[in-house]
Amino acid sequence: xxxxxxHAATTPHQGAVTGMRGCERAxxxxxxxxxxxLHVMQQRLAAATPGKWxxxxxxxxxxxxxxxxxxxxxxxxxxxxxxxxxxxVAAGDPVALHGVYGVVAVGAARxxxxxx
Length: 116
Known about the structure:
The chain is mainly beta. 8% of the residues lie in helices and 30% in strands. Strands 6-5-4-1-2-3-7 form a seven-stranded antiparallel β-sheet, with helices on one face.
């Protein structure tokens, strides 16, 4: 019988390590990593779990794609999207954030986001 060594503990990575690197132009990016393109399964799972959406207000959004959202419960969340939400998100806008699958809904538009 062989002896098994435990795996090293992993640390969750956010921000620059989750895929905010390596893409030069958002218009040419084909990645489905968090914060890039919205994967069809991500969209379907978010739609299938309506109870996990959080209503929020955009407090701040910058040209690099970082946005600060505050839920109606007062919880602040920072998210990132590769192309800065395509100009569809501005401070003061109401949005919905899916708390499990990393999707921001702005009207009919859906964006994949990474926790920042």
